[in-house]
Every structure is written in structure tokens, then in C-alpha cells.
Amino acid sequence: MGAFRDRTGETYGRWTVLARAKSLPDGAACWLCRCVCGAERVVTGRDLYTGRTQSCGCLRNERIAEWAAQRIKKVKLSGRPSRWRRMAPVVAVRVVQRVRQKAERDAAIVALAKQGLRRDEIAKKMQVSRNTVHGAVWRARNRGELITPTAKA
Q1: What percent of the chain has pLDDT over 90?
Q2: I want to staple 14 with a disulfide (CB 3.0 to 4.6 A). Which of 55, 77, 80, 104 is the partner?
Q3: Of residues 103, 121, 104, the one with CA closest to residue 112
């Protein structure tokens, strides 16, 4: 294990490290970071310096919007667009909608987990698989939104 390095004030992608946070159970160092959009999250040091995380998700949404705008521009410039070019804006909208739906579902699962419900109870109540619940809880823990451990089913 390497020597401790204070990363406060350093910038990784769109993240700026604010302070040290509580380490994970496996000993991984965690840092409280602020994205350029203003969102604050707890991120592992490993994910920061390897580039696995570069923003809170705002970068992905911007890239999707840019991609859709470019596809629409190409369709307008090319005269009569092919079938695939006509579908590009629709696909981009569907991707953004799917991301929003997943975020809303994850927020509902995390709210139930904070109430102390077990994963199988949450899955039954939300009518989703236990793997979906597990993934939502895991993502919430990595973001620092869910500190209290939930009981495994």
C-alpha cells in the first residue's frame, strides 16, 4: 500500500477534490468532490486518478446532446436523409429518457433502503429484480448517498 497523498484541491476531469471522506470497508480512500455543475459526491481515489469517473453524469448528458445536435445538423445538410439518419434524433431522445427513468427508479430504491427495507422486499415492492436493487444500492453507496448498510436477503 502506498503512502498517503493529500489530494485536496486537485482536479480530475470535472471533479475538484474538497476533502477526505470516510474510507470504504476494504480500505479504499474516498474523497468529497465537487463537479463543475455544482454537484457534490464522495468518490474513491482509485476512480479519480485512473479516470474511471470524470463527472457526476453531466458530461455524459452533454455528450449525448452534442451527438444529437450533430446528427440533426447532418440530416438537415444532406437533403433527403436516409432511414438511419432520421432515427438518430429519436435514439438520442430515448437514451436521455432512459437515463432519467433509471435515475428516478434508483432514487426510489434508495429511499426504501434508507427506511430499512431488505433488498428482496424492495424488489417485490418496486417489481424489479434483486440485481436491479443491488445495483442501485451499490451506486448510492459509491456516491455517498447511502451510508447505513442494508441487510442482505
Answers
A1: 24
A2: 55
A3: 121
- 69 and 133 in one domain? yes
84-140 pLDDT, tens per residue?
A: 556 666 777 777 788 888 888 988 999 999 888 999 999 999 899 999 999 888 888
Please give the tally of structural domains in the chain: 2
| Pair 31, 78 in one domain | no
User: Helices marked H in 44-129 — which ranges?
Assistant: 45-50, 58-77, 83-114, 119-126
Whether the per-residue pLDDT at 36 is higher than 70: the answer is yes
139 and 122 inside one domain? yes
Domain boundaries, position 128: 58-143
Residue 64, phi then psi, degrees to nearest 5: -65, -45
Q: Are residues 37 and 67 in the same domain?
A: no
Residues 136 and 99 in one domain: yes
Cell of 7: 489530494
Distance of alpha carbon 81 from alpha carbon 2, whole angstroms: 56
